[in-house]
Design goal:
Layout (H helix, E strand, L loop, with lengths): L8 E5 L4 H12 L3 E8 L4 H17 L3 E5 L1 H17 L6 H20 L4 E3 L4 E8 L4 E8 L16 H4 L2 E2 L7 H10 L20 H8 L5 E4 L5 E5 L21 E6 L4 E5 L6 E12 L9 E6 L7 E7 L6 E10 L6 E6 L2 E8 L1
Parallel strand pairs: 1-2, 1-4, 2-3, 4-7, 8-11
Antiparallel strand pairs: 5-6, 6-17, 8-9, 10-11, 12-15, 12-17, 13-14, 13-16, 14-15, 16-17
Length: about 350
């Protein structure tokens, strides 16, 4: 836990769940002046329940509680972007953008206007400081969590030094089991709380959500030789590597590619066709604020639950694009997803897969 100065204020993003509740409790115990904040992001029953639970936890902890109505901004910056990218045939990760734009964007801005020194969340990640005394410069590093199975650093690759200076991740130094024990110790009624849904603004399934907002555009399903096998209900319903829900007899088939111009869903029976040794990334962000010397060997994740894989990254001359070449082929490299870079425990940065 960061050493504190007397009276330092921290606003904790509270969801009513275990991780954010224990975060608030740890910070109060450490001597911070803590305020709990719930971000109202959408009009959904499960989010209303979370708000009531967060308010209850704040009362138990004896800390002030605020509700911020961010529905308008969240709709514009997260939901509309999510729909736009699906319409473009991509498979976006809205949580990554939400961390940059909402939690450590709008919430952080609000916290600073209310004279807070920090914003804290229940992310399983760690932050450290590198102080260069002769230059009077502090560089902040993002590190993987102690609990490697729960590590959420993958979702934080868009953050910058200005944001990191004002962020705390108190539970990053604990395992999930240790956090459960702390919840019991603090007598917080959160152990039976439902775990957060994968995407907070989606009530049922992604496809149900997309059906409500995007117009269906049926087209042909073809194999790698352009043989017509059937019909799809709209390319936005499918993602690279998908096996279930294609609806073809004689499978299994896997989604190999999407041709937006011809509105074709390209499938294969050979799972090996999904493996590739190279990807191109755009919108790359380096946590340090500086591009490292390239080419560089690093460990890479192409999706949250994917195993770390060795790769070499280089920059395409006179462009903003990067090429990653893997030592071993990777399954279902998916446009729109985040590719995240690591060096040992340190999160170097990331980008969007083209």
């Amino acid at each position: 836990m960061k050493k504190i100065k007397k009276g330092q204020k921290v606003m904790v993003a509270m969801s009513g769940g275990m991780d954010s509740s224990v975060t608030a409790a740890l910070l109060k115990k450490a001597g911070f002046n803590v305020t709990g904040v719930f971000m109202r992001l959408a009009d959904l029953p499960h989010l209303s329940k979370e708000e009531k639970r967060a308010k209850k936890i704040a009362k138990i902890l004896g800390i002030p509680f605020l509700s911020l109505d961010l529905r308008k901004e969240f709709k514009k910056r997260i939901i509309e972007r999510f729909l736009k990218e699906h319409k473009a045939g991509l498979t976006p990760n809205p949580c990554v953008v939400c961390n940059k734009e909402i939690k450590f964007g709008l919430l952080l801005e609000k916290a600073l206007t209310l004279s807070a020194d920090f914003v804290a969340t229940g992310h399983y990640a760690r932050k450290s400081e590198l102080i260069t005394y002769n230059l009077q410069l502090t560089t902040y590093k993002l590190l993987r969590a102690k609990d490697k199975d729960k590590d959420q650093s993958y979702f934080l690759w868009m953050l910058n030094q200005k944001q990191l200076r004002k962020i705390l991740f108190p539970i990053g130094d604990y395992t999930r089991k240790e956090v459960e024990n702390l919840a019991r110790k603090f007598k917080l009624p959160v152990l039976k709380a439902k775990k957060s849904v994968e995407i907070c603004f989606i009530k049922t399934t992604i496809n149900d959500f997309l059906s409500n907002y995007l117009k269906s555009k049926p087209g042909q399903i073809v194999d790698v030789r352009s043989k017509v096998l059937g019909e799809h209900g709209g390319l936005h319903f499918y993602t690279i590597g998908q096996r279930k829900g294609i609806g073809l007899p004689g499978g299994p088939y896997y989604v190999l590619n999407k041709d937006l111009k011809k509105n074709l869903l390209i499938v294969t029976k050979n799972e090996r066709n999904l493996y590739k040794k190279e990807l191109t990334a755009k919108n790359v962000n380096w946590i340090s604020g500086k591009k490292p010397e390239l080419p560089m060997r690093m460990k890479v994740k192409i999706r949250y639950r994917h195993q770390l894989a060795s790769a070499v990254i280089t920059k395409i001359l006179n462009s903003k694009f990067y090429i990653l070449k893997f030592v071993q082929s990777q399954r279902a490299i998916t446009p729109g997803q985040s590719v995240v870079f690591y060096q040992n425990q340190k999160l170097l940065g990331g980008g969007i897969i083209c």
